[in-house]
Amino acid sequence: MKKNPEADLRRNYRKLIEIGTISALAFILLLFMAFRQVEMHPENVEIPDQLIEVEEIPPTEQIKRPPPPARPSIPIPTEDEDVPEDETIDETEIDFDDIPPPPDAPPEDESSNVFVAYDEAPQPIGGIAAIQRKLKYPEIARKAGIEGKVIVNILVDERGRVVDAKVLKSLGHAGMDQAAINALKSVRWRPAKQRDKPVKVWVGFPVVFKLK
Questions:
Q1: DSSP conformation class of 98
Q2: For labeling, which of 43, 134, 148, 156 is most exposed (least CB within 10 Å)?
Q3: Running DSSP on this structure, what letter comes out for residue 120?
Q4: Residue 182 DSSP class
Q5: Which of 165, 154, 162, 166 is nearest to 202 (CA)?
Q6: Are 164 and 108 contacting, i.e. CB atoms less than 8 angstroms apart?
Q7: 87 phi-psi bin (left φ>0, alpha ψ -120 to 50, beta other)
Q8: How high is the pLDDT of residue 93?
Q9: Whose CA is closest to 171, among 200, 137, 129?
């Protein structure tokens, strides 16, 4: 009997497929058995401590508003004898002739007069040195070490005399203010001139207090 080579080839191919299938199943079985022997250990995970702070919320204060004012009562006529009758206020006559006259106006302050223009300002005879020589330093201010400048507004008349004086800027010491006024009044002045004519004017002048 003559052999068929194609039939032998098909038989050999089927054997190879069977062998490969059995080998794959055996390999899968070995892997499954190997994974079963692996021990699974749980991992220790550290959980950080959490601090929860609770803030105290102050209670809400409700503002108590005052009650509204009571509505005015409306008088209602009644015949009850216990209710007093309305009283009538007699008319009062005012005699305007008995009203005293208004008080006299206060004396006029010459320091508030309108500024008088001048061509030449008043100057102390002898200069500032003459004023400093007349200046008497208060002993209390000297011991306290008070120094500074007092500005005085003086009224110099046509004859060169200081007829009035007011402190514009003080050092806060009444004795020093008065000493500055006395020194300015003790010095004769050249009066201010307007078109070569002496005029009476107000002028501000500084007096310096300085310890030696």
A1: G
A2: 43
A3: B
A4: H
A5: 154
A6: no
A7: beta
A8: 65
A9: 137
Answer yes or no: are the C-beta atoms of 124 and 187 closer than 8 Å: yes
**Could you give phi then psi for residue 206, rounded to 5 degrees?**
-90, 145
Facing residues of 95 across strands? none
Which residue, 160, 156, 137, 157, is CA-closest to 205? 156
Neighbours of 28 (CB within 10 A): 10
- Cα torsion at 167, 168, 172, 176 (round to 10°)? -40
Under 8 Å between Cβ of 161 and 188: yes
Segments of the chain assigned E as strands? 123-124, 148-156, 162-169, 189-190, 192-193, 198-199, 201-209
- For the chain, domains (ranges, CATH) are 113-209 (3.30.2420.10)
Rounded to the nearest 10 degrees, the angle between the axes of helix 127-134 and helix 174-185 is 130
pTM above 0.70, yes or no: no
Parallel/antiparallel/unpaired status of strands 189-190 and 123-124: antiparallel
Write down the H helix ranges in the chain.
Answer: 5-36, 127-134, 139-144, 174-185
Q: Which residue has the tokens 């120094």?
A: 147
Q: For residues 111 and 204, what is the distance between their CA atoms, to the nearest angstrom?
A: 11
To 10 degrees, the CA torsion angle through 23, 29, 30, 32? 150
- What phi, psi does 64 have (nearest 5°)? -85, 110
Across the chain, mean pLDDT equals 78
111, 168 Cβ separation under 8 angstroms: no
The span from the CA of 184 to the CA of 125, in Å, is 11
